[in-house]
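User: I've been going back and forth on whether these two constructs are worth ordering. Before I decide, could you fold them both?

Assistant: Sure. I'll take them in the order you sent them. The first construct and its structure tokens:
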Amino acid sequence: MTTPKPSKDKAKAAPVLNAFAGKTDAPDAQELTLALGPTRALWDKLVDSLQHKLAVVQEWGSSSPRAGWSLRLKRKERVILYLVPQHGSFQAALVLGDKAVKAARESKLPKRVAKTLAEARRYAEGTGIRMAVKEPADLAAIEKLALIKIEN
């Protein structure tokens, strides 16, 4: 008797659980702190650094209550980086155009980030990258990708 092969659909990654799914208003500072837990310090460090280095501004946004809220770090009208709050961590997401993808591949990124970039899905608007942020070492690569996006 043979064991059936798992369907390809089961191989897909589980969806990201936004800490503010179902919420109709943008989270306040206290709600964000409660959701992020100890990673709130990393969130603040990343936001502060990108504001200082890249002159980004913050804007909370949600496409629907079901999807939850994300912090958009923008330069003029261009979204540079999305920060998606989760319970106990957060994700950084960005979309890179072809020139930025080429520059990122040529830069010295950590192996894990280079692998994420190599496996990233290509969409009409560019290549979408999502990275979990759980420790300080994750921040430098995210900042580097944000700078590459601006420069390209």
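The second construct, handled the same way:
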Amino acid sequence: MWRALQSSEPNMTMLEARSSTHTKKAALAAPAKSTKTKLRAQPRPAPAANRAETREEQQEARVTKHDRVLTLLSQRSGTTIPEMMEATGWQQHSVRGFLAGTVKKKLGFTLTSAKSEGELRRYRIETTRGR
């Protein structure tokens, strides 16, 4: 390496050769840093008051799959597993898991089922009525 430097640059010392290599690398790296800062520039978010109103409106308008199933279960006639599958897009084992895990255990509702001859089993939530 020393010989290569001596032959190409006869008056350059080893220290000067190292510093010139370092400056060349720094010059090549500089444009990459400036492009990153351009990519980070994003518009400012809306004020907090506007965001809170938007969130509340979204939550009021949003009907979750859980809400759909609970509405079906609250009907006087109840609902069947295929009806719940259609309302949510869930598979049968997911509906059964929701009934056992969420409706019975987490929410603590009394879940009853009844089957008439020739019909599918119907599930419903026992609701307590006020006086």
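Notes on the second construct follow. Strands lie at 111-114, 122-125. The two ends are 97 Å apart (CA to CA).
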